[in-house]
Amino acid sequence: MEMGLGNSLVLSRNCAQLAGPLLPHQIPSAHAKLLLHFDGAFSDSSVNQRVYQPVGTPQISTTEKVFGDGSYLSAGSDRIGYQASPDFNFGDNIPTQFSFRIRRTSTPIGENWLGGTQNGNGSVGYTLRARNSWSLLQFISVGAVGGSWNISHAAGVWAAYRLNHDGAGNYRLYKNGILHGVQNFNITDASRDFRFGAAWDGGAGLGGTVDELLIEKHPDLVITTSSIYEVENLPFEIV
Fold first, then answer.
1. 55-68, pLDDT tens digit by residue?
2. Lowest CB count within 10 Å: 13, 83, 104, 230, which one?
3. What gap in Å lies between CA 67 and CA 23, rounded to an integer?
4. Residue-wise burial string across 38-71, b where 16 or more C-beta atoms lie within 10 A, e elsewhere
5. Pairing status of strand 80-82 against strand 178-184
6. Is 86 helix (H, G, I), strand (E, B) or coil?
7. How far is CA 118 from CA 7, 23, 189, 207, in A?
8. d(CA 190, CA 162)
9. pLDDT, tens digit, for every residue of 142-196?
Protein backbone atom coordinates (compact mmCIF):
# COMPACT_ATOMS: atom_id res chain seq x y z
CA MET A 1 0.00 0.00 0.00
CA GLU A 2 1.27 3.50 -0.73
CA MET A 3 2.09 5.81 2.11
CA GLY A 4 1.49 9.45 1.24
CA LEU A 5 3.79 11.91 2.99
CA GLY A 6 2.54 15.46 2.68
CA ASN A 7 0.79 16.48 -0.52
CA SER A 8 3.27 15.27 -3.09
CA LEU A 9 5.73 12.58 -2.05
CA VAL A 10 4.42 9.05 -2.48
CA LEU A 11 6.31 5.87 -1.65
CA SER A 12 5.72 2.89 -3.91
CA ARG A 13 3.96 -0.21 -2.61
CA ASN A 14 6.06 -3.23 -1.88
CA CYS A 15 4.90 -5.19 -4.89
CA ALA A 16 7.62 -6.93 -6.87
CA GLN A 17 5.61 -7.38 -10.04
CA LEU A 18 5.03 -3.64 -10.46
CA ALA A 19 7.70 -1.21 -11.63
CA GLY A 20 7.73 2.33 -10.28
CA PRO A 21 5.45 4.07 -7.80
CA LEU A 22 1.69 3.71 -7.89
CA LEU A 23 -0.79 6.54 -7.55
CA PRO A 24 -2.81 6.72 -4.31
CA HIS A 25 -5.89 5.18 -5.92
CA GLN A 26 -4.08 2.25 -7.57
CA ILE A 27 -4.19 -1.11 -5.75
CA PRO A 28 -2.21 -4.25 -6.67
CA SER A 29 -4.66 -7.01 -7.53
CA ALA A 30 -3.09 -9.41 -5.01
CA HIS A 31 -3.74 -6.95 -2.18
CA ALA A 32 -7.39 -6.10 -2.90
CA LYS A 33 -9.76 -8.58 -1.25
CA LEU A 34 -13.02 -6.63 -1.69
CA LEU A 35 -13.67 -3.48 -3.74
CA LEU A 36 -17.11 -1.89 -3.98
CA HIS A 37 -17.71 1.17 -6.18
CA PHE A 38 -21.54 1.06 -5.84
CA ASP A 39 -21.93 2.30 -9.42
CA GLY A 40 -25.48 1.06 -9.84
CA ALA A 41 -24.81 -2.31 -8.21
CA PHE A 42 -23.16 -4.04 -5.25
CA SER A 43 -20.73 -6.10 -7.33
CA ASP A 44 -17.19 -6.79 -6.15
CA SER A 45 -14.60 -5.26 -8.50
CA SER A 46 -11.64 -7.13 -6.99
CA VAL A 47 -10.28 -10.22 -8.72
CA ASN A 48 -12.20 -12.30 -6.16
CA GLN A 49 -15.57 -11.17 -7.55
CA ARG A 50 -17.25 -12.13 -4.29
CA VAL A 51 -20.93 -13.00 -4.45
CA TYR A 52 -23.19 -10.23 -3.15
CA GLN A 53 -25.62 -11.40 -0.44
CA PRO A 54 -28.22 -8.73 0.42
CA VAL A 55 -29.77 -8.71 3.86
CA GLY A 56 -33.10 -6.92 3.61
CA THR A 57 -33.39 -4.44 0.75
CA PRO A 58 -30.20 -2.37 0.45
CA GLN A 59 -30.41 0.44 -2.10
CA ILE A 60 -28.20 2.40 -4.47
CA SER A 61 -28.33 6.19 -4.35
CA THR A 62 -27.63 8.06 -7.58
CA THR A 63 -27.89 11.49 -5.97
CA GLU A 64 -25.17 11.15 -3.33
CA LYS A 65 -21.77 9.81 -4.35
CA VAL A 66 -18.08 10.65 -4.28
CA PHE A 67 -17.11 9.03 -7.58
CA GLY A 68 -18.91 7.26 -10.38
CA ASP A 69 -22.65 6.77 -10.71
CA GLY A 70 -23.82 5.93 -7.22
CA SER A 71 -23.31 5.01 -3.59
CA TYR A 72 -24.78 2.56 -1.08
CA LEU A 73 -27.77 4.03 0.73
CA SER A 74 -28.07 2.64 4.25
CA ALA A 75 -31.21 3.61 6.12
CA GLY A 76 -31.75 1.08 8.89
CA SER A 77 -31.18 -2.62 9.44
CA ASP A 78 -30.69 -3.44 5.72
CA ARG A 79 -27.08 -4.35 4.95
CA ILE A 80 -24.83 -5.75 2.28
CA GLY A 81 -22.99 -9.03 2.75
CA TYR A 82 -20.24 -11.11 1.17
CA GLN A 83 -19.45 -14.75 1.85
CA ALA A 84 -17.13 -15.76 4.68
CA SER A 85 -13.40 -15.72 3.97
CA PRO A 86 -10.12 -15.57 5.94
CA ASP A 87 -9.51 -12.40 3.92
CA PHE A 88 -11.92 -10.62 6.26
CA ASN A 89 -10.01 -11.68 9.38
CA PHE A 90 -8.79 -8.45 10.97
CA GLY A 91 -7.10 -10.12 13.92
CA ASP A 92 -4.40 -12.36 12.46
CA ASN A 93 -0.75 -11.53 11.78
CA ILE A 94 -1.29 -10.47 8.15
CA PRO A 95 -1.36 -6.69 7.52
CA THR A 96 -4.92 -5.55 6.72
CA GLN A 97 -6.37 -2.21 5.66
CA PHE A 98 -9.99 -1.11 5.39
CA SER A 99 -10.90 2.12 3.55
CA PHE A 100 -14.32 3.64 2.89
CA ARG A 101 -16.20 6.93 2.57
CA ILE A 102 -19.36 7.84 4.45
CA ARG A 103 -21.82 10.71 4.30
CA ARG A 104 -23.87 10.45 7.47
CA THR A 105 -27.42 11.76 7.76
CA SER A 106 -28.63 14.40 10.19
CA THR A 107 -30.77 11.85 12.03
CA PRO A 108 -28.47 8.97 13.14
CA ILE A 109 -30.22 5.66 13.66
CA GLY A 110 -29.30 4.13 17.01
CA GLU A 111 -25.57 3.81 17.58
CA ASN A 112 -24.75 3.65 13.86
CA TRP A 113 -23.26 0.17 13.68
CA LEU A 114 -21.27 0.14 10.46
CA GLY A 115 -20.46 -3.52 10.01
CA GLY A 116 -17.94 -6.31 10.23
CA THR A 117 -17.92 -10.05 10.90
CA GLN A 118 -19.27 -10.24 14.45
CA ASN A 119 -22.03 -12.80 14.96
CA GLY A 120 -25.35 -12.14 16.64
CA ASN A 121 -24.28 -12.87 20.22
CA GLY A 122 -20.88 -11.20 19.84
CA SER A 123 -18.86 -14.33 20.62
CA VAL A 124 -16.59 -13.99 17.57
CA GLY A 125 -15.67 -11.39 15.01
CA TYR A 126 -15.56 -7.61 15.04
CA THR A 127 -17.82 -4.64 14.35
CA LEU A 128 -17.22 -0.95 13.73
CA ARG A 129 -19.64 1.51 15.26
CA ALA A 130 -20.05 5.27 15.57
CA ARG A 131 -21.41 6.78 18.79
CA ASN A 132 -22.36 10.12 20.32
CA SER A 133 -23.53 11.70 17.05
CA TRP A 134 -20.38 10.60 15.24
CA SER A 135 -17.91 12.00 17.74
CA LEU A 136 -16.55 8.54 18.56
CA LEU A 137 -15.64 5.56 16.37
CA GLN A 138 -15.19 2.22 18.11
CA PHE A 139 -13.89 -1.21 17.12
CA ILE A 140 -15.81 -3.93 18.98
CA SER A 141 -14.77 -7.56 19.41
CA VAL A 142 -16.49 -10.21 21.55
CA GLY A 143 -18.76 -7.57 23.03
CA ALA A 144 -15.87 -5.43 24.29
CA VAL A 145 -14.42 -2.17 22.98
CA GLY A 146 -10.98 -2.84 21.57
CA GLY A 147 -10.23 0.55 20.09
CA SER A 148 -11.93 3.92 20.53
CA TRP A 149 -11.06 7.06 18.60
CA ASN A 150 -12.38 10.62 18.99
CA ILE A 151 -13.57 12.05 15.68
CA SER A 152 -15.81 14.88 14.49
CA HIS A 153 -18.08 14.12 11.55
CA ALA A 154 -20.83 16.61 10.78
CA ALA A 155 -24.09 15.52 9.17
CA GLY A 156 -24.35 15.87 5.40
CA VAL A 157 -20.58 15.78 4.84
CA TRP A 158 -18.55 13.06 3.13
CA ALA A 159 -15.50 11.79 5.03
CA ALA A 160 -12.83 9.26 4.06
CA TYR A 161 -11.94 6.67 6.72
CA ARG A 162 -9.10 4.18 6.90
CA LEU A 163 -8.60 1.57 9.62
CA ASN A 164 -5.63 -0.74 9.48
CA HIS A 165 -3.80 -3.43 11.42
CA ASP A 166 -0.07 -4.07 11.10
CA GLY A 167 -0.43 -7.72 12.10
CA ALA A 168 1.16 -7.09 15.51
CA GLY A 169 -1.86 -5.77 17.39
CA ASN A 170 -1.47 -2.13 16.40
CA TYR A 171 -4.58 -0.49 14.91
CA ARG A 172 -4.61 2.95 13.29
CA LEU A 173 -7.63 5.05 12.41
CA TYR A 174 -7.51 7.86 9.83
CA LYS A 175 -10.18 10.38 8.89
CA ASN A 176 -9.61 12.44 5.75
CA GLY A 177 -5.95 11.44 5.70
CA ILE A 178 -5.22 12.44 9.32
CA LEU A 179 -4.20 9.90 11.96
CA HIS A 180 -6.51 9.83 14.98
CA GLY A 181 -4.35 7.56 17.07
CA VAL A 182 -2.70 4.15 17.33
CA GLN A 183 -4.14 1.58 19.71
CA ASN A 184 -2.96 -1.90 20.61
CA PHE A 185 -5.46 -4.66 21.32
CA ASN A 186 -6.45 -8.17 20.31
CA ILE A 187 -9.66 -9.27 18.63
CA THR A 188 -11.26 -12.69 18.39
CA ASP A 189 -12.05 -13.26 14.75
CA ALA A 190 -13.36 -16.06 12.58
CA SER A 191 -14.06 -16.70 8.92
CA ARG A 192 -17.56 -15.23 8.83
CA ASP A 193 -19.52 -13.23 6.29
CA PHE A 194 -18.54 -9.59 6.02
CA ARG A 195 -21.60 -7.35 6.38
CA PHE A 196 -21.81 -3.58 6.19
CA GLY A 197 -24.60 -1.12 6.95
CA ALA A 198 -25.76 -2.40 10.33
CA ALA A 199 -24.83 -4.76 13.14
CA TRP A 200 -24.26 -8.31 11.89
CA ASP A 201 -27.66 -9.44 13.18
CA GLY A 202 -29.46 -6.19 12.28
CA GLY A 203 -30.44 -3.69 14.91
CA ALA A 204 -28.95 -0.20 15.10
CA GLY A 205 -27.92 0.55 11.55
CA LEU A 206 -25.97 3.15 9.71
CA GLY A 207 -27.90 6.19 8.54
CA GLY A 208 -26.19 7.61 5.46
CA THR A 209 -24.45 6.73 2.21
CA VAL A 210 -21.24 4.80 1.57
CA ASP A 211 -18.84 4.91 -1.38
CA GLU A 212 -15.50 3.34 -2.38
CA LEU A 213 -15.25 0.51 0.14
CA LEU A 214 -11.96 -1.37 -0.06
CA ILE A 215 -10.41 -4.18 2.00
CA GLU A 216 -6.72 -4.91 1.43
CA LYS A 217 -4.82 -7.83 2.96
CA HIS A 218 -1.50 -9.41 2.06
CA PRO A 219 1.77 -10.41 3.77
CA ASP A 220 3.55 -7.78 1.63
CA LEU A 221 0.95 -5.05 2.17
CA VAL A 222 2.58 -1.87 3.46
CA ILE A 223 -0.14 -0.21 5.50
CA THR A 224 -0.40 3.54 6.00
CA THR A 225 1.49 4.51 9.17
CA SER A 226 2.37 8.19 8.69
CA SER A 227 0.59 10.96 10.60
CA ILE A 228 -1.02 12.11 7.33
CA TYR A 229 -1.48 10.52 3.93
CA GLU A 230 -2.64 11.62 0.51
CA VAL A 231 -6.30 10.68 0.21
CA GLU A 232 -7.07 9.35 -3.25
CA ASN A 233 -8.87 11.78 -5.60
CA LEU A 234 -9.97 9.08 -8.04
CA PRO A 235 -11.90 5.84 -7.50
CA PHE A 236 -9.80 2.86 -6.50
CA GLU A 237 -8.29 1.02 -9.48
CA ILE A 238 -6.99 -2.54 -9.51
CA VAL A 239 -3.63 -2.85 -11.29
1. 888 999 999 999 99
2. 83
3. 17
4. bbeebebbbebebeeeebeebbbbeebbbbeebb
5. unpaired
6. helix
7. 37, 33, 8, 19
8. 21
9. 878 999 999 999 999 999 999 999 999 999 999 999 999 999 998 887 778 899 9
